[in-house]
Each structure stands twice: as structure tokens, then as C-alpha cells.
């Protein structure tokens, strides 16, 4: 299961059964989950049971799987049960059996055969020729908006990344901060460790990360999460370049069109338009992760997977770095951990220094993340050295620079010890924790260390007076 599928699966798994029952009434949702979140063996089980007139005994299902693949079978069955697609039945005088749940089975049959009048796959709009949007225009809009989001995270507005017209709303910035991807200090925006890991993901995983954060925040705003989820799964089944009518959308989904437009997932001429267009970010939501990477050249290298074979970074043993790219986003990412000195039309050069790497580490970026970025974006010439790709001296030095900040740190304070009993120790120790001065404790040795002693001294004095009065 890909990282994007895992993130969405973890969210779905936390939902109650009543939500699944409402979700699965939409054929587009059933088809999306079947396509995107199930491993091949689980899909085989579903298809085998989909048109079966009666429950399948557990013993019969086990016959389908090789004896050496029991673990894969158990994993597939467990996944289907957690998504409430499969359930066990135990009728009197009958062996234990498996059966697909309803309405999932009925909705999947409708999705596969085209039956029903559910309109869960969108209603194509009759747009005038002058109002139609081309696929290159949709790709350009999606790239501009998504690069704007990533550019804001890495703080690259000063190098021209947002000059193409990306308009980031307050809601976008708040969602990034809500998800812990950025840290805002006044007017300063710093990317966090989670944010840097987010930037290094392939685009589909990034989109799902944002959508899960949107789902979590939508619940706080009292938005119907079934409407939100159903609409997201529907987007993955729509056709790129086709306009769709808003007539059958709920109030929640109409609001989502505006919110998702800020990320480049949906395009509208105007908020009051009668139709909307899904961009490539939307139509690949429930497809394989590779679809977005290879579908078109309209997305720049910065928006492709970090496993793309078009590497652009060359790094030498003297820590000199050369990046053959003109992408402002990639240049901004490099500037997070390298000191860039020269910029040409198709290349930038710089150097990894102790100060630049330590600055990145202080922002929460780990040394391993820097190494992974350099490795996955290494130029083809560097990949000819299949033994290491990156110079070992550079890799070791990045790790050493990180270790510098992980050495022992001294803290001024006061050690309390020599308590006669556990009860005598636990009282002041708990009080130190409550007032926020406790730095370290050892229950076995009955000692604790605090940064300030005045409050503890006053507490011990009051306890001594209470004992005297009681005695």
C-alpha cells in the first residue's frame, strides 16, 4: 500500500460503522476504495464474493490460497473487515462463512455495471465553447497553485515562485499550520520536520495528506464528513477536461469547491459559475500513484515523485553542489540546507556548510532527510557509481553535523534526594511536575532535579507544619 493510501486508510479506519454505511451507498466511493486501498489478494476475494448467491465457508476461502501464503490471506481478510467490506456469519448448523456487506456489494455492482440513477460519478455540464477549459490550462492552474503552496512552505516567495499568480488564501495557510507542516512566528514562516518530509513526497501522497488534514478540520467546522468523503472519492472518478454541473451538490460540497480550488484541485471560472472542472490533482486521487508522475509533462519536475529518474544534483567530495534545474521550488528546497552562491539560467551552485546544515537541523529537518533528498535527486552521472552514489565523506559529515546538536546539554538547577520513604518522595516530586519545574526524576533512587527550588522548599515547609499540627 502506498503512503498516500496508508494515510487515507488510517483515517477511514477510525470512522464508526454508521459512517461506512452512509459512505458505501455511493457507487463512486465503493469503486474508489476497491481500486485504491485494497491489495490484489483482497480485490480477488471481493470479486469472487461479489456475485456469489450465498456466504462462502471459511474453509473454502482458505483453499484458494497457497499454504505458504496464509499471512497474506490473514492480512487481506483483516483489511476487508476493518474497512467493513467483509463480515463473518455464523448461522445455526452452518459452518462459519464470509459475506460482503451491504450496501458496499450493491454499490460496487452498480459501479461496475453502470446500473442505477445515483449520479455519484458527477453530472457532465453543457458548457459553451467559449467557456470550455483545455487540459493544458487545467494543468497550468494546478501546477501554479500547488507550487504556490509548496513555495510558501519553504519560504521561497522571495525568489519569484509565486510571481505566476498563485493566490494562497488564509484558509490554506491555516491548514498548513494546523497540520504542523509549517511554524509561523510573526511574519516569519519556517518549515517543520514533517513539512520537509511532506515536500519530499510524491504529489499524490501530498494531496492526500492535505485532504486528510482538511477532513479533520472539517469535523471541527461541523461539516458533514460523509459529504466531504463522498465528494473526494467522486473526484477521483471524473474525467480530466470535462466540466461538471453543480446542480446535484450539497451545501458542504459547494463550499469544498472553493476550498479545493485554493490548492489547485478544482478549477472554476468564478465561484458563482454553474460548473466546475477537476484538475489532474483530483482525477488521480484514486488511481495508481504513478499516474500523476507520467501522465503529462505539464507538471514540472518539482511536482513529480522524488523517485523520478531525472536527477539534477551533483555533489563533490569537497561539499560543492551543482543543481541543473531552473525550478524555483527545487532551488528553494536546496536553499534550506545549502549555501547557494551562483545562479545561472539552468543551474545553481553552492556548498554544504556546517552553518547551512545546522540551520536546517534547527528547523527540524533531519540529516537523514537531507541525505535522502540528495540521493533521490542525484544526477545520472553520479548514479554511474552504483556502489555509493553520494560521496561517503559528505554523508558522514552531514550525520556528524547533526550529532553535534545531540550531545549532552547542561541545565542549571537543584537536586533533591535522601527521602526516607516513597510517600515522602512522591509528594514534592508530583508538586514539582505540577508547577513545571521538574527536569528529571528517578523513582528507584528517590531523587529528582528541578530548575527552581523556591516552590519546592515552600511545599516541604508547609508539609512539615501540617505534620506538626497533626501530631
Commentary on this structure:
The structure is a single chain. With 471 residues, the chain is α+β, with helices and mostly antiparallel strands. 49% of the residues lie in helices and 12% in strands. It has helices at 3-13, 17-23, 27-37, 40-50, 58-63, 70-82, 104-113, 135-154, 170-178, 193-200, 203-220, 225-235, 251-261, 280-283, 290-294, 328-335, 354-362, 367-376, 380-383, 392-404, 422-434, 454-470, and strands at residues 56-57, 86-89, 97-100, 182-185, 188-191, 244-245, 266-267, 275-278, 313-315, 320-323, 339-344, 347-351, 414-416, 438-442, 447-450. The strands form five sheets. The protein has a four-stranded antiparallel beta sheet with strand order 9-10-12-11, covered by helices on one side. Strands 1-3-2 form a three-stranded antiparallel beta sheet. 34% of the residues are buried.
Amino acid at each position: 500500500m502506498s503512503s498516500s493510501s496508508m494515510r487515507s486508510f488510517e483515517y477511514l479506519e477510525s470512522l464508526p460503522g454508521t459512517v461506512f454505511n452512509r459512505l458505501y451507498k455511493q457507487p463512486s466511493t465503493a469503486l474508489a476504495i476497491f481500486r485504491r486501498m485494497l491489495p490484489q489478494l483482497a480485490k480477488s476475494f471481493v470479486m469472487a464474493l461479489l456475485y456469489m448467491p450465498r456466504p462462502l465457508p471459511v474453509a473454502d476461502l482458505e483453499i484458494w490460497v497457497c499454504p505458504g501464503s496464509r499471512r497474506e490471506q490473514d492480512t487481506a481478510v483483516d483489511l476487508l473487515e476493518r474497512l467493513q467490506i467483509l463480515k463473518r456469519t455464523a448461522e445455526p448448523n452452518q459452518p462459519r462463512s464470509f459475506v460482503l456487506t451491504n450496501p458496499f456489494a450493491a454499490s460496487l455492482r452498480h459501479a461496475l455495471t453502470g446500473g442505477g440513477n445515483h449520479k455519484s460519478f458527477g453530472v457532465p455540464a453543457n458548457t459553451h465553447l467559449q467557456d470550455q477549459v483545455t487540459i493544458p490550462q487545467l494543468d497550468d492552474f494546478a501546477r501554479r497553485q500547488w507550487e504556490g503552496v509548496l513555495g510558501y512552505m519553504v519560504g521561497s516567495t522571495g525568489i519569484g515562485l509565486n510571481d505566476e499568480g498563485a493566490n494562497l488564501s488564509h484558509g490554506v495557510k491555516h491548514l498548513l499550520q494546523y497540520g504542523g507542516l509549517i511554524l509561523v512566528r510573526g511574519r516569519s514562516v519556517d518549515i517543520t520536520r514533517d513539512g520537509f518530509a511532506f515536500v519530499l513526497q510524491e504529489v499524490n501522497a501530498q494531496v492526500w495528506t492535505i485532504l486528510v488534514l482538511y477532513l479533520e478540520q472539517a469535523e471541527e467546522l461541523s461539516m458533514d464528513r460523509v459529504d466531504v468523503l463522498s465528494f473526494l472519492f467522486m473526484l477521483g472518478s471524473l474525467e480530466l477536461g470535462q466540466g461538471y454541473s453543480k446542480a446535484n451538490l450539497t451545501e458542504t460540497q459547494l463550499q469544498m469547491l472553493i476550498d479545493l480550488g485554493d490548492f489547485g484541485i478544482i478549477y472554476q471560472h468564478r465561484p458563482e459559475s454553474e460548473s466546475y472542472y477537476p484538475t489532474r490533482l483530483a482525477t488521480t486521487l484514486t488511481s495508481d500513484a504513478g499516474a500523476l508522475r507520467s501522465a503529462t509533462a505539464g507538471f514540472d519536475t518539482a511536482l513529480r515523485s522524488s523517485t523520478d529518474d531525472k536527477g539534477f544534483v551533483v555533489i563533490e567530495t569537497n561539499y560543492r553542489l551543482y543543481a541543473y534545474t531552473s525550478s524555483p521550488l527545487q532551488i528553494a528546497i536546496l536553499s534550506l540546507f545549502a549555501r547557494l552562491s551562483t545562479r545561472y539560467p539552468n543551474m545553481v551552485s553552492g556548498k554544504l556548510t556546517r552553518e547551512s546544515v545546522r540551520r536546517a537541523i534547527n528547523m527540524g529537518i533531519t540529516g537523514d532527510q537531507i541525505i535522502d533528498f540528495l540521493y533521490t535527486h542525484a544526477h545520472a552521472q553520479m548514479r554511474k557509481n552504483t556502489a555509493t552514489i553520494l560521496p561517503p565523506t559528505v554523508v558522514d559529515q552531514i550525520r556528524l553535523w547533526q550529532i553535534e546538536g545531540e550531545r549532552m546539554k547542561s541545565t542549571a538547577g537543584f537536586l533533591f534526594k535522601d527521602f526516607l520513604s516513597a510517600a515522602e518522595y512522591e509528594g514534592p516530586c508530583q508538586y514539582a511536575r505540577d508547577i513545571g519545574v521538574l527536569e528529571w526524576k528517578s523513582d528507584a533512587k528517590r531523587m529528582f532535579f528541578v530548575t527552581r527550588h523556591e516552590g519546592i522548599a515552600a511545599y516541604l515547609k508547609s508539609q512539615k507544619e501540617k505534620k506538626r499540627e497533626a501530631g
